[in-house]
Write a structure and sequence with these properties.
The chain is α/β, with parallel strands linked by helices. It folds into two domains: 216 residues, Alpha-beta prism (UDP-n-acetylglucosamine1-carboxyvinyl-transferase, Chain), CATH 3.65.10; 212 residues, Enolpyruvate transferase domain (UDP-n-acetylglucosamine1-carboxyvinyl-transferase, Chain), CATH 3.65.10.10. The protein contains 13 helices and 25 strands. The chain has a five-stranded mixed sheet with strand order 17-18-16-2-25. Helix 1 packs parallel to helix 2 and helix 10 packs parallel to helix 12. It is globular, with a radius of gyration of 21 Å. The two termini are 22 Å apart. It binds shikimate-3-phosphate (S3P). The site of shikimate-3-phosphate (S3P) has 10 residues, from helix 6. The site of shikimate-3-phosphate has 10 residues, from helix 6.
Length: 433
């Protein structure tokens, strides 16, 4: 499906964007390993998270939906049943990497595969440490790519330095650590999103987190059973980011984004927009399900300044960097994004996706191996862009369409459903044309 987004007069109104994708995945996965029934309120029903539901059902976890609530009937730390067919992980890196960690600690065999994009994404980063813990794993190209076969086993804890600050790798190892002998430790130079740690703590796991000169450390002791919990999932800051960017860029805009997760490992994009001079305010800050949330008020911000994204800021805005690059085209001066090589192995090569598409709509940008340099105050002519079937590229360029002269047409625009099924409807509700 192609979608054309034209210049808008303003964005106005209130919006509760869909629930957080990272927390929704973890709510299903961790509850599957608990004893008893967990209730998940405001579960994100989108492509990736429904893949997780499907995969855990294939391992005989009963998951029921009733009146908007998801009931996950956990079977304990090693209660998953061997699936009788290949597990299909769709487009979801989070489902794949976390589930590899889970299966490593079960006495089962499974094979995993995924769509064209997922089969190109690196998996050795999880397979290597899981092997060190004692799991039997192999995959295409010496274990780098799906399809992957895994046989779980008796695991032993390891100490692992998570150099890329990947939350998926950290989470996989903590989940494997739940059944391992002794202690599993993950050390990060910069703390990545910590939803797994927070949820495991609330379920009664023996988990400890600390900071020192070397960065952030998490320790988990195996063998401690998990309690079922009730989880109310807040709105996803990565989805809210698109409309925040829209309100900042489109004249006369004012929007209120409700109940958004503002965990400091996730809200780097909003902090960076503020640093650029955007009119953004957190109001009514509160706690929900062990996570900080707020309503975010965003207004049109004509005086944006270019910024440099520092290495230690990257994990907290990793999924929003493409969007930040698009906003930067309207700021005064240059914006520099470096040390972000990980963008090349997301749902698409997001450096290439941004650079090629910006050029296609008449915008200048310099490509770096690990990022890009964006010149500010550029006119957006418009034209056709390729989403590369990457949800965040489709949504980001839709937002840029709102300030384009001739409109932006997005190829394969329906991929937004991976994280945000009603994105175009919500855009229609807020926009005045
Ligand atoms: C995620 C972690 C990040 C992020 C992804 C979701 C998670 O990936 O980009 O969208 O839920 O743990 P990495 O772990 O590869 O950095």
């Amino acid at each position: 499906m192609e979608k054309t987004i034209k210049k808008a007069k303003s964005l106005k109104g209130k919006l509760r964007v869909p629930s957080d994708k990272s927390i929704s995945h973890r709510a299903i996965i961790l509850s599957s390993l608990a004893n008893g029934t967990s209730i998940v309120k405001n579960f994100l029903k989108a492509g990736d998270t429904l893949t997780t539901v499907d995969v855990y059902r294939k391992m005989e976890i009963q998951i029921d939906e009733d009146q908007g609530l998801f009931f996950v009937h956990g079977r304990g730390l090693d209660g998953l049943k061997e699936p009788d067919d290949v597990l299909y992980m769709g487009n979801s890196g989070t489902t794949t990497r976390l589930t590899l960690g889970v299966i490593a600690g079960q006495k089962i065999f499974a094979t995993l595969t995924g769509d064209d994009s997922l089969r190109k994404r690196p998996m050795k980063r999880v397979l290597s440490p899981l092997k060190m813990m004692g799991a039997h794993v192999d995959g295409r190209e010496k274990g780098e790519y799906l399809p992957i076969a895994i046989r779980g086993g008796n695991l032993r804890g390891i100490e692992f330095f998570n150099e890329r600050a990947s939350a998926q790798v950290k989470s996989a190892l903590l989940l494997a650590g739940l059944t391992a002998s002794r202690k599993t430790t993950v050390i990060e130079p910069v703390m990545s999103r910590d939803h797994t740690e927070r949820m495991l703590k609330s379920m009664g796991a023996q988990i400890k987190t600390e900071f020192d000169e070397g960065g952030y450390r998490v320790h988990i002791l195996g063998g401690k059973e998990l309690n079922a919990i009730d989880i109310d999932v807040p709105a996803d800051p990565s989805s809210a980011a698109f409309f925040a960017a829209g309100a900042v860029l489109v004249k006369n805009s004012e929007i209120l984004l409700e109940e958004v997760l503002i965990n400091p490992t996730r809200d780097g994009f909003f902090r960076k927009l503020k640093e650029m001079g955007a009119n953004i305010e957190y109001i009514n800050q509160r706690e929900q399900a062990g996570e900080p949330v707020a309503d975010i008020l965003v207004k049109y911000s004509p005086d944006l300044k270019g910024v440099t994204v520092e290495k230690q800021e990257i994990p907290s805005m990793i999924d929003e960097l493409p969007l930040l690059a698009l906003v930067a085209t309207q700021a005064e001066g240059e914006t520099v994004i470096k040390d972000a090589k990980e963008l090349r192995v997301k749902e698409s090569d997001r450096i290439k996706s941004v650079v090629e598409n910006l050029r296609a709509i008449g915008v200048e940008v310099e490509e770096l191996e690990d990022g890009m340099i964006i010149k500010g105050k550029q006119n957006i002519k418009g034209g056709i862009i390729d989403s590369f079937k990457d949800h965040r590229i489709a949504m980001g360029f839709s937002i840029l369409g709102l300030i384009s002269e001739e409109g932006i047409t997005i190829k394969d625009a329906e991929c937004a459903t991976i994280s945000y099924p009603n994105f175009y409807d919500d855009l229609e509700k807020l926009a005045n044309w």
